[in-house]
Backbone:
């Protein structure tokens, strides 16, 4: 039922507080509510932190409990946590949310235009396929072609949103 | 005898700075002293205040003043350079020649005279209109987010919601703004700073020359105020219909042609200026970044 546990070396994401948005590794457990936590590669000093503000990630590092910062840093860099984190969907969603909030009026217009164009293309393809199927009598060609068209358009939209 | 007495009394009651010189025969000493007093500042006298017990002298401060004859020995510290400089006071009077015979030729005149009038209040009372400037002298402010070339969103007036290019601020503080006309049908027009949202999108207007005759007077609404008839006809004489003049058209063309070229360089900007701004569900202005 539970897949992520609080353990020594578990990398956690801080959701609120002064270090909101950073990653830390759990070095030791103090008591029921707090952990000794350290984020040498993410700019968090070694400190006690309540579990409530931590959200566990999938990453676990290997170091002994109460290991000093140098060891934590070594383990972190060995596992390349920063890059792995950036590649997760979680981090990408956060980034996308931030980008959306920063959009200016002009950006919103461009995204609107891009979405419109994409939807038009998709609809066009759908109509084509519907026509074909209604003529030929329902052959299972629709899903493949629709997927291909969608992927081509998604990349366009992401590029425009990033601008 | 007196001279010999003093060295004995001096030893226990020595005051700092009054050291007896090397002992010499009394006569020589007195002669030397007498002779040398005039050459040097005088050899130091032994303490004139005999000691009763350690730290306690026989005579009081004022008695000692008299005994040491300080009334005729008053020294001042040498004048330092600063004091010398301070002493240089400016001239208070000047002598001027005076004409006419039997007049004494010249007068001594004060350079800085006493005031001829003393007001009843120390600081004169300020007028009620103090600090109140007419509109033409008011300070005009412009928001830092509005610079020439910024795209603004008009919020009021018949062009509400339209996105428009800002040109310059006029003398009354209103903003001179243009569509351009071919893009969104907004002519060269004035807009009020407060009723405008400044976006962060900017068009490069660095080389654009705006004609100098576009001032507030050019844009001001014209009102006829010569009702020769009685009150019944006043509403007819006031011009309600705006008439487009040739000058406006030519000015519009002159400005827009320069700006359109810049707009074309930015992709999708033309379409952006053509569109209008609106709010919909889930869109909150305080959360939007413009």
Residues:
């Amino acid at each position: 039922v539970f897949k992520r546990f609080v353990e020594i070396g578990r990398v956690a994401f801080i959701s609120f507080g002064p270090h909101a948005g950073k990653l830390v590794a759990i070095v030791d457990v103090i008591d029921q509510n707090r952990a000794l936590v350290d984020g040498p590669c993410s700019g968090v000093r070694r400190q006690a932190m309540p579990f409530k503000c931590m959200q566990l990630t999938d990453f676990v590092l290997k170091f002994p409990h109460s290991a000093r910062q140098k060891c934590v840093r070594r383990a972190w860099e060995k596992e390349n946590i920063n890059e792995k984190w950036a590649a997760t969907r979680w981090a990408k969603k956060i980034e996308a949310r931030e980008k959306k909030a920063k959009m200016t009026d002009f950006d919103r217009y461009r995204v609107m235009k891009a979405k419109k164009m994409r939807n038009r293309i998709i609809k066009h393809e759908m109509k084509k396929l519907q026509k074909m199927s209604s003529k030929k009598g329902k052959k299972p060609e629709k899903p493949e072609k629709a997927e291909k068209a969608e992927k081509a358009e998604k990349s366009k939209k992401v590029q425009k949103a990033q601008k | 005898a007196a001279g010999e007495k003093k060295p004995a009394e001096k030893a226990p009651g020595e005051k700092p700075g009054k050291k007896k010189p090397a002992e010499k025969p009394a006569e020589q000493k007195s002669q030397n002293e007498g002779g040398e007093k005039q050459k040097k500042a005088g050899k130091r006298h032994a303490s004139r205040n005999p000691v009763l017990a350690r730290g306690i002298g026989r005579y009081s401060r004022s008695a000692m003043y008299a005994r040491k004859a300080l009334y005729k020995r008053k020294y001042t510290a040498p004048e330092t350079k600063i004091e010398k400089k301070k002493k240089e006071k400016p001239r208070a009077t000047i002598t001027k020649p005076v004409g006419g015979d039997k007049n004494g030729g010249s007068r001594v005149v004060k350079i800085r005279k006493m005031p001829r009038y003393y007001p009843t209040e120390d600081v004169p009372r300020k007028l009620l209109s103090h600090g109140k400037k007419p509109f033409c002298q008011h300070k005009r402010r412009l928001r830092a987010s509005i610079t020439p070339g910024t795209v603004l969103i008009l919020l009021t007036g018949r062009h509400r919601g339209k996105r428009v290019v800002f040109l310059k601020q006029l003398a009354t503080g209103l903003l001179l703004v243009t569509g351009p006309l071919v893009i969104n049908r907004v002519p060269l027009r004035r807009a009020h700073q407060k009723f405008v949202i400044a976006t962060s999108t900017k068009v490069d207007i660095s080389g654009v020359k705006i004609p100098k005759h576009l001032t507030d007077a050019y844009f001001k609404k014209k009102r006829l105020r010569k009702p020769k008839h009685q009150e019944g006809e006043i509403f007819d004489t006031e011009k309600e219909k705006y008439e487009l003049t040739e000058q406006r058209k030519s000015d519009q063309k002159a400005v827009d042609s320069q700006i359109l070229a810049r707009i074309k360089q930015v992709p999708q900007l033309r379409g952006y200026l053509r569109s209008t701004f609106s709010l919909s569900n889930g869109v909150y202005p305080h959360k939007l970044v413009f």
